[in-house]
Structures are given as C-alpha cells and as structure tokens.
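Extended Data, panel c. Modelled sequence:
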Amino acid sequence: MNLDIQDIKFRDINENDIALLREIYGSTRKEELEKGTNWNDEQKRLFIEHQFSAQHEYYQKNYLGGKFYVIEKKNIPVGRLYIDYFFENKGVRIIDITILPEWRNQSIGSSILKEILKKAADSNLSVTIHVETFNPAMELYKRLGFIKISETNGVYHLMEWRSKQIE
C-alpha cells in the first residue's frame, strides 16, 4: 500500500534519524511537561530521551510488519508515520502519526489520514489507532469516521474506522 500525496514523501527511518525522531516524539509531550511538572530543562530532556527510547524499542520489537517513516514536505522533515498495513492480518494499524508543531494545521496530517483511509477502503480493510483522551487530534479522527471500540486505563482509546464495504 503506497501512499501518494502531493508534496509529501515518506522515507524509511534509519539510525541517522534518531535525534529527529526524538524531537518529533518530544513535541507530543512538551505541553504536558510544561503544565504538569516543575522539572528543569535537563530533567525534561532526560525524561523525553528515556520515554522516546522505550517507545522506539517497543515499536520496533512489537510491530514486526510495521513501516516506520519520516514524513517530508518538499524534502523537509515534518513528522513521522509508523504504520502496519496488515496488522494481525485484520486491517491497517496506525501505530503513530505525529506532525511537528510548526507544521500542524496545514492539512498534512488530515491529507495523510484520508489517503490511508482511501487505500484501506480500496482493499476492504479497517483502520485502527490508539489515541490518548486529551489528544487534540481526537476530533479529527471522529470527523473522519473513527469510533471508539475500547479503552485502556481511561486514557487510551482504541479507535476504528471501517469502510462501508466492510459493514
């Protein structure tokens, strides 16, 4: 399943991308760390480093069929997309999609999601993603037709999108 979106490219991550991927991950935790802790910058940096490393290792070990991409717009890194096109032979699992803050609200994420949904519909596959309750993108997922199918610890919602062909 190749994604084809004007001006947006997906390239496989490599070891040279670790600092960039850590920065992308850190952008998702910045507000939480600013509001929820009284840590200094070094403590925040160490926390992000540790959490990123744990998440990265987990994804690499547990999503063996996954594709891990840096998202680029006009050859500039703007985010990451981790996706398993045949998760558990059931459907597409968006493991993670993150757009850097300075690139958000420019239709990049929604364009990518719409293309994933189009390709999934063409193949008669459902699409799932875990979304934290407080994630601002939750509204986008709902607008695109994702519904909550389960919840973990009151924080993580497993959202699913099903094409009309599946129903």
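The two ends are 22 Å apart (CA to CA). This feature is highlighted in the accompanying rendering.
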